[in-house]
Request: fold
Amino acid sequence: MRRAMTLFWQIVIGVGALAIWEWGWDLHARVPWLVPDILDPYFVSKPSEIFKQFLRMGCLVTPRGDWTLGTPGAFERCIGRSENNLWIATYFTLKNTLWGFATGVSSGFVLGLLLGRSDRLSEIFYPYITAFNSIPRIALAPIIILAFGIGDASKIVTAWLVVVFLVFFNTFEGARSVDRDHINAARLLGAGEWQVTRTVIVPSTMAWLFASLTPAVSFALIGVIVGEFIGAEHGIGRMIIEAEARGEAAGMMVAVFVLMIVGVILATGVRRLQSYLLRWRPASTLAT
Amino acid sequence: MQNTPPESLADPSSLRCRIEIDKLRKVFLAQGREVVAVDDASFRIDDGEFVALLGPSGCGKSTILNMVATLITPNGGAIRVDDAAVVPGRPIRNVGYVFQKDTLFPWRTVEDNIGYALELAGVPAEERKARVAEAIRQAGLDGFGRFYPASLSGGMRQRVSLMRTLIARPEILLMDEPFGALDTHTKLDMHSVLLSLWERERQTVLFVTHDLGEALTLADRIILMSARPGRVKADFKVDFPRPRDAVKLRETPQYAALFSQVWHSLGEEFAKGSSPT
Reply:
């Protein structure tokens, strides 16, 4: 019953918002004080327009409005016509996000582990890390584009930069808070230094690493999009900038919509992975 | 030191000394003040003896155990295990340790926790599997091999802890109030498990506890510690026949007699321990 009511309200709110978006502006002429200017389709387009634009940009219909699926070869022709259509853009953005994520997570983990387990190293590097961490990473994106060009490398580096600090700090905390009794237990059961690291410190730090994976993947996506805004040949960020230049609100909205889907898929995938890897945790402490 | 006869040269096997503690001293710093936790503690444990180290809370009994286990560095005196001086920070092969706290690795299943020491030692997977399965059976944990510690009860976790230590077949066993956190019923259960496991191997055991009933049930000898600073106050022989039944033993008159004898001695220390120092 409760679930049904929740679902009911979710649908009401969703449909209501879409309806206001679609037809709200029509009321503007009659009762201007009721409808805010932001609903002007010039800025935010309309759901129906966005959907049509999505079909066009995704090569699901031809520019003349026919479905490509019915005509053999039409889809391929449409894909071939544009340099940065929806599919190619999504592919590039996704690919660079995953690379940035993977490199950021692995290097952040290694650095965090190294500094977290060595008081000497963490003492030496402390001021530098604090200083670097206070730089908004995104501010470095133009420099990265300048240094690495407008290809994939600069996007991966931007995403890496955003992810690596997040993962580093989580791992660092985790490595510092390894239970002394677990280390003692391992030693008393015959573990040498390296075995303690491999069988106790790494696995218990992993729990902290995993907790940072979901934000890390979202951060990686942000890094890639910002990189694409500044200079890119492909990608969804590039698509948004192009649509903006043409004053196409619907085109921008399609790109944002696709980003939303990509974001949800990535976050869900990582959360699945996370709850599998942390299956040993008691259910009550498992963040879902 | 009432009942430690000199080692007989004629028959060294029967009374081989495994653990020898001589004038041990440990001072802690607490809020800038020096607190003497253990002072001038001396005793020895022979091969195959099950010795309980009994005393009020804070009397330094766990500190002594942890010094034997090389976890804490003494400020004075000497510890010898099998005639070799103990070096702090360098655990001794052959010595197993069971913690009071739950120190199972939560990311490992019951099987993998129990098999941990064998894994470290590089025992081949086949043999490891067989020995782990045997340990699981002995501890009455059948069917729980693939569970993670988080889904087990306190008593079951302590069984896993026990088997994780015992699987390496240590000849000397150090136990720091291993059943201290368990309820009475589970505790009695664990006594039976421990007694039956010990009967097979007859390890040399040093068992720290503040529970007199537990000490009488398990041990051959009770070393009674005084309140802080911890010294050895008395040494009682517990000569109930073995194998013992953890529950029935408590109903015998001999148990009651020894209980009251030690209790009076212990009671004095509890009274001291609770007065402001």
Chain B touches chain A at residues 69, 71, 91, 93, 95-97, 99, 101, 103, 105-109, 116-117, 119-121, 148-151, 164-165, 168 (CB under 8 Å). Confidence is low (pLDDT under 50) at residues 1-12 of chain B. The helical segments of chain B are 61-68, 110-114, 116-120, 125-138, 154-166, 184-201, 212-218, 253-274.
